[in-house]
Amino acid sequence: KNIFGAHKKAIKLLEYCTATLVNYFLQLLQLAIKIKYLSDSVSQNFQNDCLALFNK
């Protein structure tokens, strides 16, 4: 389960404004589902990576 592909696609859509709000919602929903099913170790790494990005 690769969440990185899903989040890159969602960010790309937002960055280039190439989608409708429905497209954004669907991408975010897919991303949320993939995040929900991460293993504990991957989930912790993902959380740390997100915190590092948001704290820049």
From TrEMBL:
It comes from Racocetra fulgida. This is 18747_t:CDS:1.
